[in-house]
């Protein structure tokens, strides 16, 4: 492919338009690209969906030689390369899955400079064979994707990333660009140090994802709540449901399938072939729901994941943000939904208490959990709280989270808190017995049951003093006191116990403000206001056309054996449906329709538009 030389400042923009079919750069893409094209090193931090790939793909096309891209996920290299080939970019990969003939072919293409990008796994750089291969070609730049994998304290640590520190010694003149969506400044410093990128220019984007609507709801019947979310708001949409345990992944997937939702399980207990097959199907087919443990998701760059639902409380805000960030990479409105309840708090505190590791380690886990609980219980804007957590000052409410859309009421819960704490205090004196939250609430509500009569708890002065609140409200009180550290759980059975801070409440030295438990779960039929600014709504009359285009895309993707989004993204199909272009020239002006895709799919698209009888 002939491109203007790197000295031409318009080369990058021209490439963006012609090859990728986009009008303009986003955020600081243009600055990063200019810097790398000129030979500078860069460390790029952008949220998922921010558009990191173009930051190295365009320099790869503009600079002489082949860009070497280090990517940790062998299973996804084929898709990455397919997506580039679909826009007419010459790319290849080398990893252990290739047969010897294909390998030789790709190696020859690299040496001859017949490709523009070569994807490699980090472990490849430890092999002499690969190093000498690299010496035989001309390298345009090194791109280090998912650069946080070099962080030893992060959850995605890959020891092979440490070897990447040798790149500047061996290839001092080749620019390097490291990219990650992991936000904290500690990770950023660690990446710069370990990759010898201390002299690199840092580009740090805002981590806000305005098209994602954040919602955290009280957990009642989680699977049913999930089902109504999917039916009411996301029918036919692709999404991810995260569960803590393998067993609940399996059960939830079965439940969804039994209720007519196309869902697949994914967890480390499944054999590798099933896992790979389910992941492939999720990427390739439209509208599948993946029910998974957090083992699933890194590097999944499916742009049209419309929702991420958590049925269990994540262990940290970092994890939560990374997982929810997999929704809406294409910028279209998406939902991040979490159901959270008392049992989550009890369970996680127990897990921390019984975890291996020293006190410092347990404290670290507890601090992460506390930050997550604070996010769940806040009456402020969720987005503002998230961004502040990552060190970004937030301004006012976002208008696209549950607390902004339906501001929760807070109320003075000091008296109920005292009633609950007194009950715990009285039970605490029966040292060798174990009483969890359920039993305390039964006592407060004055419920007669076997356990109450066995221990004669109907004789306690607190028996029946809490009938002014409903059971769900009492569970809310317990949960919030646990979240605030005014109450704790002990032992294997989740026995409630007082903390030092409890005394302040019992001694009337502290008021307790609580978030009101909604009578019924808030149905968020509310239109995501913030998201409307990201992309135009599809006009109602264009919806049937969009569905026909989707059907055409599904058939084409199947025929070519590539994911549907490699053909066209949803955003592009929507625009085509809305504008209904009448000619190739009009079609070429739509964002996401580059030269190659116009040549390949232009006529078939116009045929779908012209013929309303095309089967959908
Ligand atoms: P990241 O790797 O940062 O998560 P991607 O590189 O996958 O993000 O980009 C996210 C989405 O945004 C992709 O669908 C990509 O095609 C699109 N995109 C990136 N840059 C632009 C741009 N300048 N104009 C329009 N779309 C863009
Ligand atoms: Zn908000």
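Sequence proposed for the structure above (616 residues):
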């Amino acid at each position: 492919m002939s491109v203007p030389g790197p000295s031409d400042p318009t080369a990058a923009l021209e490439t963006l338009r012609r090859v990728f079919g986009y009008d303009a750069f986003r955020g600081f893409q243009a600055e990063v690209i200019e810097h790398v094209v000129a030979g500078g090193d860069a460390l790029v931090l952008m949220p998922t969906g921010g558009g990191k790939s173009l930051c190295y793909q365009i320099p790869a096309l503009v600079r002489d030689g082949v860009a070497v891209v280090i990517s940790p996920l062998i299973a996804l290299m084929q898709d990455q390369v397919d997506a580039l080939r679909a826009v007419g970019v010459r790319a290849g990969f080398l990893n252990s899955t290739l047969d010897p003939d294909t390998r030789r072919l790709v190696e020859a293409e690299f040496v001859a400079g017949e490709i523009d990008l070569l994807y490699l796994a980090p472990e490849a750089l430890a092999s002499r064979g690969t190093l000498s291969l690299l010496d035989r070609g001309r390298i345009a730049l090194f791109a280090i994707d998912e650069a946080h994998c070099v962080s030893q304290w992060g959850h995605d640590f890959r020891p092979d990333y440490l070897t990447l520190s040798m790149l500047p010694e061996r290839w001092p003149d080749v620019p390097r660009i490291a990219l990650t969506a992991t936000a904290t400044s500690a990770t950023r410093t660690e990446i710069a140090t370990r990759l010898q990128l201390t002299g690199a220019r840092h580009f740090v984007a805002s981590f806000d994802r305005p098209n994602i609507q954040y919602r955290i709801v009280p957990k009642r019947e989680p699977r049913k709540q999930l089902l109504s979310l999917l039916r009411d708001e996301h029918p036919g949409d692709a999404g991810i449901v995260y569960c803590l345990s393998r067993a609940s992944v399996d059960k939830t997937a079965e439940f969804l399938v039994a209720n007519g939702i196309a869902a697949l399980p994914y967890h480390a207990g499944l054999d590798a072939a099933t896992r790979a097959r389910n992941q492939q199907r999720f990427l390739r087919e439209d509208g599948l729901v993946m029910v998974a443990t957090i083992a699933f998701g890194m590097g999944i760059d499916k742009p049209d994941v419309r929702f991420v639902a958590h049925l269990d409380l994540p262990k940290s805000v970092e994890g939560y943000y990374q997982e929810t960030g997999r929704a809406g990479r294409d910028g279209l409105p998406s939902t991040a939904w979490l159901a959270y309840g008392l049992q989550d708090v009890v369970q996680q505190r127990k897990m921390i208490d019984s975890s291996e590791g020293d006190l410092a380690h347990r404290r670290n886990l507890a601090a992460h959990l506390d930050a997550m609980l604070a996010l769940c219980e806040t009456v402020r804007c969720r987005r503002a709280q998230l961004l502040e957590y990552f060190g970004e000052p937030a301004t006012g409410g976002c208008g696209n989270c549950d607390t902004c859309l339906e501001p929760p009421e807070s109320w003075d819960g000091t008296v109920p808190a005292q009633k609950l704490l007194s009950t715990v205090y009285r039970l605490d004196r029966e040292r060798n017995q174990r009483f969890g939250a359920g039993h305390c609430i039964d006592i407060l509500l004055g419920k007669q049951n076997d356990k109450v009569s066995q221990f004669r708890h109907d004789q306690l002065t607190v028996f029946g003093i809490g009938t002014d609140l409903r059971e769900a409200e009492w569970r809310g009180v317990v949960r919030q006191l646990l979240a605030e550290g005014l109450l704790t759980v002990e032992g294997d059975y989740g026995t409630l116990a007082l903390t030092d801070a409890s005394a302040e409440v019992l001694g009337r030295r502290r008021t307790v403000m609580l978030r009101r438990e909604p009578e019924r779960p808030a149905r968020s039929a509310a239109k995501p206001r913030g998201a409307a600014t990201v992309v135009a709504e599809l006009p109602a009359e264009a919806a049937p056309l969009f569905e026909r285009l989707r059907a055409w895309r599904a058939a084409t993707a199947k025929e070519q054996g590539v994911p549907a989004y490699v053909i066209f993204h949803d955003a592009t199909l929507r625009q085509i449906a809305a504008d209904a272009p009448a000619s190739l020239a009009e079609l070429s002006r739509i964002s996401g329709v580059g030269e190659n895709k116009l040549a390949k799919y232009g006529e078939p698209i116009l045929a779908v538009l012209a013929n309303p009888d095309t089967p959908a």
